[in-house]
Amino acid sequence: MSAASISTSITTTSARLGVMLTDLRLPTIKRLAGDLCAQSDLEGWPAHRLLEALLEHEINERESRRIDRHRVESGLSPDKRLSSFDFTAVPTMSKAQVMALAEGVGGTVEHFVQMMNAQAKVLGMKSTGYKNPEGLTEPGHTTTARDLSILASRLMQDFPDYVGYYAIKKYRYPGTPAANESNRNLLLFRDPSVDGLKTGHTDAAGFCLIATAKREAPGVGQRRLLSIVLGASSENARATESQKLLNWGYTAFDAIKLFDANQAVVTPNVWKGRGSQVKLGRFAPIVVAVPAGAAGRIQTQVARPEPLVAPLNRGQAVGALKVTLDQKPLVDVPLLVLDTVEQAGFVGRAWDSVRLWVK
């Protein structure tokens, strides 16, 4: 979608407001609106690297970490020890918390920033550069709405058990400053379908919000949308614009299920295998987002290599489902082997070799 088409659907609150809407339905991530902002400063979000460290047991969820005396701020008492759970679950993290976690994972803050940039590159965040973990304005510390959609999508995909933290409305531990115990994502208090995800604010970036919601969609089940609003003029404005964007996404676009989970999209012949055919599909439903009422104009075509020669292992990518709308490319969905086809014995392989040679 173009910037013009979006701007007619929402009221912008700032000349530098950037917005983006993503339909988060794996295996495809269909962007409903393009990246409408230039590079913008945004409060740093080291969440993916921190949660990866938790998952890989580099740090323990209940391990206590000391906040160094020179890093104490916002009313936290010196030498207080907090668990990693306290750090990640509290709705509003202070600089002291971020620094303590950064040092706990990276050894030093500087090394952790290097880790953040390396992780951003792995995730495909091509327009993001981190200079610090806490997100305060610094030359070169920039990202875009598109990159933030990638980060947020991967966070929810890779660490589903931790997504619930972002829906916590209030959380405190002894010594928590009163200003930090409430989640600043106002949509959590306004819309029961919203369950995250991240707020940010600096003078340079304005008020920013990555919001996500889950609502029932006919024939699909729960459908998750992700909105990114950058550069709003106030805390209330970022919530209001995010709400408009989410509502617009749910009403202006339909989620269409093309194939069920584990349903064969195509069943081609296999050579030199113990089975003669292989089922190609996805382990999750194949769902695409299209403008409301456009479902009848969807077309699909399978592109795959030929011939297919065993062995073919479950989960192996073999070709793609090409989805078009009005004869224009919409999305390519990689097709996976649903059931392993083992290699045939010597005689079977030899016979198929002859058949392929004659063919």
Helix content: 25-40%
Do you know the CATH topology of the largest domain?
Beta-lactamase
Q: What coarse outline follows from CA principal-axis ratios? A: elongated
Question: How is the biggest beta sheet arranged?
Answer: 5 strands, antiparallel
| Radius of gyration, taken over Cα atoms and rounded to an integer in Å | 24 Å
Order of helices and strands: HEEHEEHHHHHEEEHEEEEEEEH
Average pLDDT, all residues: 78
Task: Note the beta-strand portion.
Answer: 25-35%
Spatial gap, N to C terminus: 47 Å
- Supply the CATH class of the largest domain: Alpha Beta
Query: Quick one: how many beta strands?
Result: 14
How many domains? Answer: 2
The strand order across the widest sheet is 2-1-7-6-5
In oligomeric terms, what are we looking at? Answer: single chain
CATH fourth-tier homologous superfamily of the largest domain: DD-peptidase/beta-lactamase superfamily
Based on the structure given, which CATH architecture of the largest domain is correct? Answer: 3-Layer(aba) Sandwich
The number of helical segments is 9
* Structural class based on helices, strands and sheet pairing: alpha+beta
